[in-house]
Every structure is written in C-alpha cells, then in structure tokens.
Amino acid sequence: YSLATSKFKTVRVFTINSNDEVNKDVVDYFHVPKLPLVLFYNDETQNYFHYEGDDVSVESLGVFINGCLNGSIPFFVKRQPVPEDWDKSSVKDLVFDTFYEPFKTHQYGMVLFHAPWCGHCKAFMPIWTEFAELVESKFPEVFVGRIDHTQNEIPDITISGYPTIIAFKTQDDKIVYDGTRTLEELEQFVVKTFFTEEPIPKTPEVSEESKEEHEEEHEEL
After folding, report:
1. Where in the sequence is the domain holding 139, given as residue range(s)?
2. 112: Cβ–Cβ under 8 A, 6 or more apart, which residues?
3. Is residue 82 part of a domain?
4. How would you class 221 by CB atoms within 10 Å of its CB: exposed for 0-12, middle for 13-18, buried for 19 or more?
5. Per the domain annotation, does 181 fall within a domain?
6. pLDDT averaged over consecutive 10-residue blocks of the chain (221 residues)?
7. pTM for the whole thing?
8. Strand 219-220 to strand 174-176: parallel, antiparallel, or no bridges (unpaired)?
9. Nearest to 65 by CA among 21, 1, 17, 160
10. 174 and 128 belong to one structural domain
11. 34 in a domain, yes or no?
C-alpha cells in the first residue's frame, strides 16, 4: 500500500483492525461489505470508494487511486433497493435510485429526510402523511416524498439533523423548511414557495425560550 501511494503526495495510508470494537462504527459508516477491503476516502469531498478488484498489486492500486482522484471511478453511495409500489401512495417512498423520478410528472417537490431511530420523525410521520394527501388533492403540481437518509446518500444534499424537510422548486433550487411542523404552516409554505411571486417573509424573532423548545424537536446527527 505504501509503495502504491508513494507517488501521490496528498494520499495517506491507514489500516484499521475491524475486530476492534472501537472501530465498529467506522466499518459500519463506510459500509464495508467484506474483509479485507481497500477503501479510498477523499477528505475534501467526503466521498469514498471501494476497491473491487481481486488483484492487489502496486500497479492496480495505483490505477484505482488515480481513478478516484480524476473522477473516472464512481464514488460509493449508500442506497436501498427500490421498494415495490414506491410511488403509488400520497407519500412517495424514495431511495437513491428514484430520488428525482417524481420530477418527470411533477413540477415541484417536498421531501422529508428522516432516520428510523429518530423519535421526532416517528411522531411527525402521521402529519406528513396527512400533508401529502392534502397536497395531492389541492396542489397536483407538487409531489411529497420521504427518504431514509441513513440508508440513502443524495449527492449535493447535506443533512445535519432529523427530521429535515427540503422544498424543491427545481432539482437544483432547494429550500430548507424551517417552520413549525404543523399541517397549516406546511400548506402555507407550499403556497408561498411554489405559487406566489412574493418572497417568503423572514421568520419573526422569537424568545430564547421558544428557540429552545423548537431545537428540542430536532435531533442532530
């Protein structure tokens, strides 16, 4: 490994003992499918790459590292299999491979990024389902979806806590929803964001006590 990386000045080599309980989170984070595994991590982009070749030689590792750096090798992304009937209900059950599919039939989108262990997400899900049904009946141009972000990484979208709601005016024009998670305010947000030319008014200043109550309803990563 050291010989293979010696010509790349910015590449460092580390080894991890996967049997060490301390390293279990690292192994899980990088979705290590088998051992041993050569993994390349780009600290600047935070993308990582699994070496899938059987030939572990100086030459083959050099080609692998060069491909990671020049973009010719795709980086690894967490993804779940596409659920059956993922788009048949009011709430679209999105995964990596279907994330942008609803834009083929809808102009706008509202997506909930959640985690299965998040208590606030579980409590909010019935409201999100009711919101999706309302949007489907009143605003057919808008789709409503949800995605387990712990199992599906979407490039160019960074999530700092759960639940997080993002509005998509286009696939590239995104707005993070920062209002209260009520049906009424979500509907108002849809109208102001997608169907009026007026800018969304800034959130009025709230007391420190109110801020603390809102923060308690959001679980950081």
Report:
1. 91-195
2. 121, 124, 128, 144, 145, 146, 147, 163, 164, 165
3. no
4. exposed
5. yes
6. 59 62 69 72 75 79 84 81 94 96 97 96 98 98 96 87 96 95 97 77 44 55 62
7. 0.67
8. unpaired
9. 1
10. yes
11. yes
